[in-house]
Amino acid sequence: MAVGLIAPQSLPAIAGIRIGAVSAGLYGKPRPDLALIELAENSTCAAVFTRNAFAAAPVIVAREHLQREGVRYCLINAGNANAGTGTAGLENARRCCTAAAGRDRAESVLPFSTGVIGEPLPIAKIEAALPALHAALDEDNWLALAGAIMTTDTVAKGLSHTVEIDGVPVTVTGTAKGAGMIRPDMATMLAFIATDAAIEQPLLDDMLRRAVAKSFNRICVDGDMSTNDACVLMASGKAPLPLLRDASAPACQILQEAVDTVAAGLARAIVRDGEGATKFITVSVEEGATEVECLAAAYAVATSPLVKTAFFASDPNWGRILAAVGRAGLRDLDINRVSLYLDEVCIASYGGRDPSYTEEAGRRVMQRDEIRMRILLGRGEAAETVWTTDLSHEYVRINAEYRT
């Protein structure tokens, strides 16, 4: 059950972006599992992908197609990752693009897949569903997209934010999927964000990378990086505003904040819906010498099975947290300057238990659904935040039965 997460009831449309979602039977039952995003002509599109060496076939093909100008479609299937499928997987990914493009170039399509790794993509089912998919295209289908890309997600994830630029309303709407195999590096499981602003390609690329760095690259459920991670940012240019091209311009800064807001909200939604999660945990590392070492410490804690299982048990076993910080590789760490807080409770200071700490106070905090952990290193002014979950019996069950 998702922690403090409710599925959106509506998601504002983006002028110039149409979406279709249908059932292609990829799960063997009638549920939406195939989606298509159509971008208006002259739109710009940026994307980032997993750095996993075993990148899935659609990731490889999407990277190739993104180098060409004129992206018009994103084709997404759930139920099958088309990863670990060799040359045949690449051929199937390209075949999907050709079929989805219709009269357009195959290179105008970016393919995306999510689901079981190592199984052949049921290409015939996808091709058979494409006419209905094109017929379903509509600007008001963001919720349908959110549902169609789900795998082990329990809640559809979507968020929208509208800002005003020079008196003109500009909207950013996005959706994401992901609940397990979450420890991204450049992206998340799958995320699609769009705006009606007109944005020059280099600026769009930079805008996406800035947003991803502080959102999708700051989350963890289980420490595993997917073979299919991808995050896409699209700009249709339909808002009546001049082309944005200067990152330092006030208009660009306003839009960057809007994209950041949507990306961070979607990233946190993935953690809140983490497989088997019962707690949403914010890990803030402060007073670091550099942001790099703050992240190293934060992820050492956020990915530790011992820490995560203690949170599941509501056990304030703070020694596990200090041990994780100690093995994070921080050079010349003075443990006598490290402090640890769980919400308002100071647990450790000066290298040991804080004099004011009681086990009762620690357990009271640990029983909450949402907890903020603050780790003060006493080394400088840098700070970073990572969001993570506990690790429960249900996580083991979900992944033990994933293919059965």
Report on the structure:
This protein is α+β, with helices and mostly antiparallel strands and 404 residues long. The protein has two domains: 17-272, L-amino peptidase D-ALA esterase/amidase (4-Layer Sandwich), CATH 3.60.70.12; 280-400, Roll (Ubiquitin-like (UB roll)). It has eleven helices and 15 strands. The strands form three sheets. The chain has a six-stranded mixed β-sheet. Strands 3-9-8-7-6 form a five-stranded mixed β-sheet, with helices on both faces. The protein has a four-stranded mixed β-sheet with strand order 1-2-4-5, with helices on both faces. Helix 5 (201-213) links the parallel strand 8 and strand 9. Helix 7 (291-302) crosses helix 9 (318-326). The model has no long low-confidence stretch (mean pLDDT 95).
Short characterization:
The chain is built from 11 helices and 15 strands. With 404 residues, it is α+β, with helices and mostly antiparallel strands. The radius of gyration is 22 Å and the shape is globular.
Shape: globular
Identify the CATH architecture of the largest domain.
Answer: 4-Layer Sandwich
CATH homologous superfamily descriptor of the largest domain = L-amino peptidase D-ALA esterase/amidase
Radius of gyration (CA) equals: 22 Å
The overall number of domains is 2
Broad CATH class of the largest domain: Alpha Beta
Tell me about the largest β-sheet: 6 strands, mixed
Gap between N and C termini: 21 Å
Mean pLDDT: 95
Helix-strand category: alpha+beta
Low-confidence runs: none
Helix content: 25-40%
Strand content: 15-25%
CATH fold-level label of the largest domain: L-amino peptidase D-ALA esterase/amidase
Number of strands: 15
